[in-house]
Specification:
single chain, 138 residues, DNA polymerase, domain 1, two-stranded antiparallel ribbon
Length: 138
């Protein structure tokens, strides 16, 4: 089953990036990715394209209509925030954004394994980044 990645994930030892279309052999696994919000079904997406275009044109950005709404943050905002952490450059900030790590607090609370899953980050670097984030929160 072909799916389009909407949230960066690691699958079969490979880091899948947002926008990438991949063929998942196990249909149950593909449906699990869709249910978790990590992938979308391109066939279903094309069927509702007209609806989503209409909704997007009406969207005025995040609102505070209820307490459950989440404020949308941009890559630029996240990059600015995370760049305060020693060891995080623009490329790494974008990779963290892709996996929904959006704040210094979230970096400080991240497991080393989560950061190590990002290409180019080893265990030592992950530990130093987490330590630097925790220091900023003091």
């Amino acid at each position: 089953m072909n799916v389009t990645i909407v949230k960066s994930i690691k699958y079969n030892g490979k880091y899948l990036t947002i926008g990438e279309t991949v063929d998942i052999d196990d249909e149950a696994e593909a449906k699990r990715f869709i249910a978790l919000g990590c992938a979308s079904d391109p066939a279903a997406a094309s069927e509702s394209a007209a609806e989503s275009t209409e909704v997007e044109s009406q969207d005025q950005g995040p609102t505070n209509d209820d307490d459950d709404s989440e404020e949308m943050v941009t890559l630029e905002q996240v990059t600015e925030e995370l760049s305060k952490i020693k060891g995080i450059n623009e490329e790494l900030a974008e990779a963290l954004f892709d996996i929904d790590i959006l704040s210094i607090q979230e970096v400080a609370n991240a497991a080393k394994d989560v950061l190590v899953a990002i290409p180019g980050i080893g265990k030592n670097s992950a530990g130093k980044i987490i330590k630097s984030a925790k220091a900023l929160l003091r």
